[in-house]
Specification:
- The chain is of the alpha/beta class.
- It has three domains: 232 residues, 3-Layer(aba) Sandwich (Rossmann fold); 194 residues, Rossmann fold; 72 residues, no CATH class.
- 32% of the residues lie in helices and 25% in strands.
- Keywords: ATP-binding, Cell membrane, Membrane, Nucleotide-binding, Repeat, Translocase, Transport.
């Protein structure tokens, strides 16, 4: 089936999310829609899937204009969609999820026999290995994604939309998905692959369309270089390769021992995690989202109850102390959600830059604040961190995501630190902002600060890390060197220990980090 979008525009009030977009997807083609977060890719696909009605423009299938009042109409026309956040009910079986919305009955009762048979047929055809009677909540993330694909194929989808399909997958699961896409297109199914990951787009695409700020800014073949594609995405030349010197490790001043978080239901989202970080090195935590990374950073910062173990920074025990005390001990923290935990939207940029120091000199004067000092600080940091704003008095909520992240970074890096923690430091940022954030993180490392990075983007982990700690279901699978093969890291992200993973790929474990002096109570000034 040939899909054509002609002049699709979608407005939400005064905001234009998509403007006059033209797109053609040929039968059996993988057409990649490439763009940064917020570029309008998902909005466009939601229009195609019937979730939104276009303000202007047409959708044509095999040359015939069609109108979708909702997803049911799109599915009936042969369009299926696998959302970035799966639309599955965990307590239902695979068969029940697949049948949902397309139920067949016998004698007034739900008849799943035909659905089970069809699931087995599709699983055998594409090597999915999905049990129709398994509870979805018990399945790994990669298998849940296959269930979503089965849902679309059961309804005879001729065009399959995959929205950021690798965001929650290990490298092995990503490779398996790309192989499945190859099988689907060989059978004549068209695939619209939405992503911001250049490496994957180049690997899977037959054709690439780049969207920036809601408009099509260019098309490319998979042979285009990543630099060319990145430049199209952001509108200027950018460097995709982070250049950094070898770490100059000092004393081991940050230590975590048997850190455990117990939830209200008795489970342990973080279970007996131990590691050290030396001055002047980056330890990056890799893992699929939801495996305890959030609990790790929040436990260190003092945000969680029911935490046991030990957290030592320059000889000071942090466990059990308040967030204010932890920050006062020299910890800089960039949270994974800047809008919820990192900034106060209605406050000005200047005010956000002193959120954790408003009551200390020079920003406090007696029982009041010192506006002149706050203003000077803001002017200096806005210039140093290249925050694009008309005024330091502007509400931080008016800034773009990249500039908001720069404000968080500027605040956390504007004082001497004994530990810097950044969780998902570039989530939602364009390539240019990512380049800036990465440089600042490495600059802080080179000043001799221990750095802890948490990221679900494996490419980012590999670029920033001096060592990589892999976490799975709240447990540490091992700590390896940054040059560890992606395949090995992927096995660890799926639950293999470091030793098991190296054994499976037939190579020896990475050389351990050089011996370092024992933790020291002092710290460079």
């Amino acid at each position: 089936m040939r899909l054509e979008l002609k002049g699709i525009t979608k407005r939400f009030g005064a905001f234009t999310a998509n403007e006059a977009i033209d797109l053609v997807v040929e039968p059996g083609q993988v057409h990649c829609l490439l763009g940064e977060n917020g570029a309008g890719k998902s909005t466009l696909m939601n229009v195609l899937y019937g979730l939104y009605q276009p303000t202007e423009g047409q959708i044509l299938l095999d040359g015939t204009p069609v109108t979708f009042a909702g997803p049911g109409d799109a599915m009936a026309a042969g369009i299926g969609m696998v959302h970035q956040h799966f639309m599955l009910i965990p307590v239902f079986t695979v068969a029940e999820n697949v049948a949902l919305g397309n139920e067949s009955t016998r004698g007034g009762l739900l008849d799943l026999a035909a659905t089970r048979t069809r699931i087995r047929q599709i699983s055998q055809q594409y090597g999915f290995d999905v049990d129709p009677d398994a509870l979805v909540g018990d399945l790994p993330v990669g298998v849940q994604q296959r269930v979503e694909i089965i849902k679309a194929l059961v309804r005879d989808a001729k065009v399959l939309i995959l929205d950021e399909p690798t965001a929650v997958l290990t490298p092995q699961e990503t490779d398996e998905l790309l192989a499945i896409i190859g099988q689907l297109t060989a059978d004549g199914t068209s695939v619209v692959f939405i992503s911001h990951k250049l490496r994957e787009v180049k690997e899977v695409a037959d054709r690439i369309t780049v969207i920036r700020r809601g408009t099509v800014v260019g098309s490319a073949d998979p042979s285009a270089s990543t630099t060319e594609l990145a430049s199209l995405m952001v509108g200027r030349s950018v460097s995709l390769n982070l250049t950094k010197d070898a770490p100059q490790r000092g004393r081991t001043t940050f230590s975590v021992r048997d850190l455990t978080v117990t939830a209200a239901n008795g489970t342990r989202p973080l279970d007996a995690v131990s590691f050290d970080i030396a001055e002047g090195e980056v330890l990056a935590v890799a893992g699929v989202q939801g495996n305890g990374q959030t609990e790790l950073t929040e436990a260190i910062l003092g945000l969680l109850d029911h935490v046991t173990g030990a957290i030592s920074l320059a000889g000071t025990e942090l466990l059990g102390r308040s967030v204010k005390d932890v920050l006062g001990a020299g910890v800089g923290f960039v949270p994974e959600d800047r809008t919820v935990d990192g900034l106060v939207g209605p406050f000005s940029i200047a005010e956000n830059l002193v959120l954790d120091r408003y009551d200390t000199a020079p920003f406090a004067r007696g029982i009041g604040m010192n506006p002149a000092a706050i203003r000077r600080q803001a002017e200096e940091k806005v210039a140093e961190f290249d925050v694009r704003t008309p005024s330091i008095g502007a509400a931080v909520s008016t800034l773009s995501g990249g500039n908001q992240q720069k404000v968080v970074l500027a605040r956390e890096l504007s004082r001497p630190l004994k530990l810097f923690i950044a969780s998902q430091p570039t989530r939602g940022l364009d390539v240019g902002s990512i380049e800036f954030v990465h440089r600042r993180i490495i600059a802080e490392r080179d000043r001799g600060t221990p750095v802890l990075i948490v990221s679900t983007e494996l490419d980012e982990v590999i670029q920033l890390a001096d060592r990589i700690a892999v976490i799975f279901h709240g447990r540490l699978m091992g700590i390896v060197d940054a040059d560890t093969p992606r395949e090995t890291l992927g096995l660890m992200m799926a639950g293999a220990t470091a030793q098991e993973a190296f054994g499976q790929v037939g190579s020896a474990p990475s050389t351990p980090a050089p011996d370092r002096p024992a933790p020291d109570e002092g710290h460079r000034q």
